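Progress report, Aim 2. The chain analyzed during this reporting quarter is listed below.
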Amino acid sequence: MVILFSNTKGGVGKSTLAAHLVLYLFDRGRRVALVDADKQGSSSQWIAEAEPSIPIRQVRVPEAAAESVVQLRQTHDYVVCDSPGDDNDVPRTLMLLAELALFPVGPSILDLRSVAIAASLLKYARQINGGRPQGRLLLNKIRKRDRISRSLPEAAEQLGVPLLESRVRDLEAFRDAAQQGTSAARMQRARGFAKQDIEALCDEILRVADSMDVDAAAEAAHG
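Predicted structure tokens for the chain:
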């Protein structure tokens, strides 16, 4: 299963969420690898420090992105891809190779506008690939008292991409996890909202992925 975190804007939390999903899968015994196409390389540095045994591919051109994903998915249960925060051939290539595309969006009008561009890329990929990848919006960096945060679900619905039920709050624990090279769920003080939010999110992502596998198997059986 190839899972892509995508948005044409930086700062929405793609790398943080990608790193947390990779470690969540690893901690549950899944064979997981990371393809990091973000120029900053944050997620690859994060994973290299947290779990050096996890395969990492840093890619900057579409050919390398395609080769890495194709090779890794032959030997791993999950390939998690961290897409760059811009619009070029690399995110387009990753979108065409993905089976599940996740679009983090935060409490910013600019985030919503940028994810609208990514959603159009999803639509294009689905037309070419016969309905693949599946897409989901993911509400990240949510603030309870922020007016834009409260209006995000309604605004996201207008983009025509299903919205995950899980919400990830804007918490200091995620920044601490990055500094320590670990996940919020692994930290000694792993408790409270950060652990709760990230595990609920990753659980839901796996449920979506598992349901896609079931649907694919059913289609193959009737093939």
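The first strand starts at residue 2 and ends at 5. The domain at 2-221 is CATH 3.40.50.300 (Rossmann fold). These observations will guide the mutagenesis work planned for the next reporting period.
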